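Dear colleagues,

As part of the handover before I leave the project, I'm documenting each prediction I ran so the next person doesn't have to rerun anything. This entry is a single chain, and its sequence is reproduced below.
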Amino acid sequence: MSQENVEIVRRVMALMSQSPGPTRDREVLACFAPDAVIDMSRRVFNPDVYEGHAGLIRLGEDVASVWSEFHIEPERVIDAGDRVVVIEIRRGRGAGSEVRVEQRAAVIWTLRDGRVRAGGNRPCARGGSRELGLEE
């Protein structure tokens, strides 16, 4: 099941890099449980917790309102059983300021029954695995 979880997370990340639209949005929501919780309370800009499909839609709206450009590049994907950890580089350009920002983060995805149940991020340095209690 864990390899399937990795593939689901890779699919979500690939979908999120596409332009928003009704088809893409439906495909993204299909990857998440209706009661999924995405905890972004540790992010620098606009920390928040997003609950359910309505929360996921709000997350997308929040990202679009803050960033004129926003890209996530997975650096490393770690299979951790019912969790998948993605060390990623986030690059964006502020919607009002046009200032470019780059941050390395770890996103911990929890999956069950083939759907994302929870996700959360934390900033991380270098490889990030040791900070999360995982082997390098």
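The first helix runs from residue 2 to 16. Strands lie at 32-39, 49-51, 67-80, 83-94, 100-112, 115-123.

All the best with the project,
I.
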